[in-house]
């Protein structure tokens, strides 16, 4: 049975609806399998006659590939086949929409296996398959690659210089303006304008301009990339893999291998984290080619150093941001110049960065310039709210500084300028009903904000964050069983407990318990097309599909009840799963038992494609202490507040908020790709790439605000992205509050903090 | 009439930051823009479809479909594509 536990820190606005399932905290459907070790991850899979693949990777950050000699490796006993980019079809120079962003298949193919040039250290050059994984690793070492090293560029501003070494000779900057004549490393230039910036700054009493730098960071999922490919003699290809989107893997495989999607089945196994990093394919096409060559199923598991060096981190960035305000605390103008690195291929996250930079505030005048820049690092990928954390670090730091200079309470200053319904963003669209003001109010009313922080070198910081959240395509089918349970088949891979949050929405619609819905994530042959699990979209969009499938079932159940009771279907009422008509009533379970014996099975189905943003906001509050001797920052207390629209399963909402906050804290204080002068990452292990653990942090407190999304029947907005956005800025503001020094660079690691404290001049 | 917000880099062609244009779909609106301001279409369209670097905000709907219907006074914005984590 569901256990109804009211969240004591959930604040619902606007005539809250009473639900029976939604808002409760049932045990997750996959919980027993997960905690007893029975859940099947890809690496658990063992197929008969399975072989194992390994990669040869570039030791250079930038080099021309002169030759590849696989002879010695192929002569080793137990080695079955090798492959290089020559074994992949010539790529289409075609850009395709993957639902959440587009991919250029020529670039993707060149990232899977390098063509002509290695563009970053760790770039895959060749691969080998053998009868065991150790043999494959040894054979990979015997593949001889001759390189001609080229100068590398590792910092975004260096890569933008006219004399920078070019990664792609044919890369012409994409812009809606005049196209440049010469190639460069600048892949895209985006510009937004609202009002007149000069006029706005002229009206300001206080103007602050700062420059910020951030390092590349990785999503840090525990499970490395792993896949098994089995290419049968009949031409059908089956892939078992850890992915955020089985259909998107199918789409990419079909394009890279030039075979129809109908010949590919992708089976999504359980996934040990993704956060945006498991949408692009890496090892899957190589495993497929090797399987075709050797006639066996082929498994490839990336090592941790391969995951760091060859999969997609979030970009490093340089940002110059300027804000102006009047002395009564009103923002009047903003200006941002943003350069994000895209890694070795174009298509980074500068677009959303530009759209998010001033998204929390109502600015009458603003301009934004953004640049997508290629350099000799792995191709960047999404990481929770991609691009938004960077700009929030910049803007929220200056907002705090403005509030301080104007001697206005930082929450009051934010409330004075907060975006709300009707606010026009700098990129153009106008917000519908949103919940930023409610989040700021909730933080102001919290125990944490009202508490007193005392002690030397201790400080308090606050920051806001935004992410769009997406809709996109989702499909579900639901089969009613004779015992009154319902099997729910869905295409969304389950990263954060979405089996249960979707099952709960079907249960609420049907008036049954969450436990009476049995959810299953199906392969690409067994359910309709479903976009990626990303963009905080699954509980919103796949939940919407489950709601409509529930209504479909209800219509069929009503029709059956009218047969049984010999009455007009329109005379039948359904309330909380009780069907009433012709002076009779049956529960859903009782009716399911009856209809099973009198007609065809009842199968509900729905496919949806909601296309709006659900617009989610969060506000975080942190208390911290700085050790002046070492520069180490200790988090003392942390509260994350967020508008979830409606929390379907509050524990999962809180878990997303806590997980995102912890990842943001790691980004703020420790995490970075540390490169040496040769462009080699020197900390490609979890020992040296320092992510925070439960030993480093207090329990993250949560406050769920519920301003219902008018475009969802239960008001869902989605929650996974926003909580990574505010932490770096909140912590930077807390450090200033503690020691009087503003920091403009991430990570704010002990050396950086120590130098800032010790460079402090008397009187500062 | 749709209200088309012109991206800053296109304003050298349109001379304005907003343009009111007739047309029942996004494609028809772009055709009308092209008639008035030659050169706009090639900056927005590639191989008959919206440029892969762009998406549309039509009212509160985010889409890449040029067949998206437009009601009177609907705002149309050309925005960069976004991906989530």
Rounded to an integer in angstroms, the radius of gyration calculated over CA atoms of chain B is: 12 Å
Proper CATH architecture of chain B: Roll
Low-confidence stretches of chain B: none
Number of structural domains of chain B: 1
Q: Major sheet of chain B: size, sense and barrel closure?
A: 5 strands, mixed
Strand percentage of chain A lies at 15-25%
Q: How does the helix and strand content of chain B classify structurally?
A: alpha+beta
CATH-derived topology of the domain at 387-469 and 613-758 in chain A: Aldehyde Oxidoreductase, domain 4
From the 3D structure, determine the CATH topology of chain B: Ubiquitin-like (UB roll)
Keywords:
heterodimer; A: 764 residues; alpha+beta; Aldehyde Oxidoreductase, domain 4; seven-stranded mixed sheet; 20 helices; 25% strand; globular; disordered N terminus; B: 85 residues; Ubiquitin-like (UB roll); five-stranded mixed sheet; two-stranded antiparallel sheet; 24% helix; 31% strand
Write a brief caption for the model.
The complex is a heterodimer of chains A (764) and B (85). Chain A is of the alpha+beta class. In chain A, 27% of the residues lie in helices and 25% in strands.
Structure description:
The complex is a heterodimer of chains A (764) and B (85). Chain A is an alpha+beta fold. Chain A has 20 helices and 30 strands. In chain A, helix 10 packs parallel to helix 11 (388-405). By secondary structure, chain B is an alpha+beta fold. Chain B has one domain: Beta-grasp domain (Ubiquitin-like (UB roll), Roll). Chain B has helices at 11-14, 26-36, 40-44; strands at 2-5, 18-21, 45-46, 49-50, 54-58, 61-63, 75-80. The longest helix of chain B is centred in the middle third of the chain and has 11 residues, at 26-36. Chain B is globular, with a radius of gyration of 12 Å. In chain B, 41% of the residues are buried. The chains are: A alpha+beta (764), B alpha+beta (85). The interface between A and B is large, with 58 and 27 residues.
């Amino acid at each position: 049975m569901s256990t109804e536990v009211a969240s004591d820190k959930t604040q619902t606005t606007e005539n809250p609806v009473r639900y029976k399932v939604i808002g409760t905290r049932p045990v997750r459907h996959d919980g027993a399998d997960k905690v007893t070790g029975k859940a099947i991850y890809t690496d658990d899979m063992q197929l008969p006659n399975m072989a194992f693949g390994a990669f040869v990777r570039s030791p250079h950050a930038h080099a021309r590939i002169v030759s590849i000699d696989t002879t010695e490796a192929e002569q080793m006993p137990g080695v079955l086949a090798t492959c290089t980019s020559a074994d992949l079809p010539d790529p289409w120079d075609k850009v395709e929409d993957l639902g959440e962003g587009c991919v250029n298949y020529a670039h993707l193919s060149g990232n899977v296996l390098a063509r002509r040039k290695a563009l970053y250290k760790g770039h895959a050059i060749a691969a080998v398959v053998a009868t065991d994984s150790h043999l494959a690793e040894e054979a990979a070492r015997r593949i001889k690659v001759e390189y001609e090293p080229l100068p590398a560029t590792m910092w975004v501003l260096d890569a933008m210089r006219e004399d920078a070494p070019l990664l792609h000779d044919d890369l012409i900057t994409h812009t809606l303006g005049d196209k440049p004549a010469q190639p460069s490393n600048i892949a895209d230039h985006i510009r937004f304008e609202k009002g007149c910036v000069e006029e706005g700054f002229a009206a300001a009493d206080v103007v602050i301009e700062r420059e910020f730098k951030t390092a590349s960071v990785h999503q840090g999922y525990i499970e490395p990339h792993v896949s098994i490919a089995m290419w049968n003699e009949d031409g059908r290809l089956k892939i078992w893999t850890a992915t955020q989107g089985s259909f998107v893997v199918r789409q990419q495989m079909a394009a890279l291998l030039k075979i129809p999607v109908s010949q590919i089945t992708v089976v999504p196994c359980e996934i040990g984290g993704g956060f945006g990093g498991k949408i692009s394919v890496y090892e899957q096409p190589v495993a497929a080619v090797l399987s075709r060559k050797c006639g066996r199923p082929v498994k490839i598991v990336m090592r941790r150093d391969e995951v760091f060096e060859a999969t997609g981190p979030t970009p490093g960035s340089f940002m110059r941001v300027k804000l102006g305000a009047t002395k009564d605390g009103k923002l009047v103008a903003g200006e941002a110049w943003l350069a994000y690195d895209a890694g070795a291929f174009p298509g980074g996250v500068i677009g959303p960065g530009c759209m998010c930079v001033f998204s929390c505030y109502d600015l009458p005048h603003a301009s934004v310039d953004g640049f997508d820049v290629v350099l000799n690092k792995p191709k960047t990928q999404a990481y929770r709210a991609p691009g938004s954390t960077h700009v929030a670090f910049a803007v929220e730091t200056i907002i705090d500084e403005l509030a301080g200079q104007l001697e206005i309470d930082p929450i009051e200053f934010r409330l004075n300028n907060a975006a709300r319904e009707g606010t026009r963003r700098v990129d153009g669209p106008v917000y519908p009903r949103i919940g930023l003001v409610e989040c700021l109010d909730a933080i102001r009313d919290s125990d944490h904000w009202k508490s007193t922080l005392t002690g030397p070198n201790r400080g308090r910081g606050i920051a806001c964050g935004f992410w769009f959240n997406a809709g996109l395509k989702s499909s579900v089918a639901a089969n009613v069983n004779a015992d009154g349970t319902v099997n729910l088949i869905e295409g969304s891979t389950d990263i954060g407990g979405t089996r249960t949050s979707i099952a709960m929405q079907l249960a609420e619609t049907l008036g049954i318990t969450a436990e009476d819905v049995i959810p299953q994530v199906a392969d690409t042959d067994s359910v309709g097309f479903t976009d990626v699990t990303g963009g905080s979209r699954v509980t919103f969009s796949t939940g919407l599909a489950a709601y409509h499938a529930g209504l479909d079932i209800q219509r069929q159940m009503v029709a059956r009840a009218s047969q049984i009771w010999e009455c007009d279907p329109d005379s039948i009422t359904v309330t909380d799963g009780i069907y009433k008509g012709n002076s009779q009533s049956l529960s859903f379970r009782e009716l399911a038992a009856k209809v099973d014996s009198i007609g065809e099975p009842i199968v509900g189905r729905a496919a949806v494609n909601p296309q709006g943003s659900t617009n989610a906001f969060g506000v975080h509050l942190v208390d911290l202490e700085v050790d002046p001797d070492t520069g180490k920052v200790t988090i003392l207390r942390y509260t994350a507040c967020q508008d979830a629209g409606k929390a379907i399963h509050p524990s999962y909402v809180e878990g997303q908020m806590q997980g995102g906050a912890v990842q943001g804290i790691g980004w703020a204080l420790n995490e970075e790709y540390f490169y040496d002068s040769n462009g080699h990452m020197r900390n490609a292990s979890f020992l040296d790439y320092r992510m925070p653990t439960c030993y480093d942090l207090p329990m993250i407190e949560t406050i769920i605000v519920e301003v219902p999304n008018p475009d969802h029947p239960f008001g869902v907005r989605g929650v996974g992205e926003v909580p990574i956005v505010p932490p770096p800025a909140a912590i930077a503001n807390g450090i200033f509050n503690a020691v009087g020094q503003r920091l403009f660079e991430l990570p704010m690691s002990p050396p950086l903090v120590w130098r800032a404290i010790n460079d402090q001049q008397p009187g500062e | 009439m749709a209200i088309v917000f012109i991206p800053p880099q296109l304003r050298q062609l349109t001379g304005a930051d907003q343009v009111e244009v007739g047309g029942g779909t996004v494609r028809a609106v772009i055709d009308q823009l092209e008639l008035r301001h030659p050169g706009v279409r090639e900056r927005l369209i590639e191989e008959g479809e919206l440029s892969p670097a762009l998406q549309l905000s039509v009212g509160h709907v985010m889409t890449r479909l040029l067949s998206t219907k437009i009601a009177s006074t609907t705002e149309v914005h050309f925005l960069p594509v976004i991906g989530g984590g």
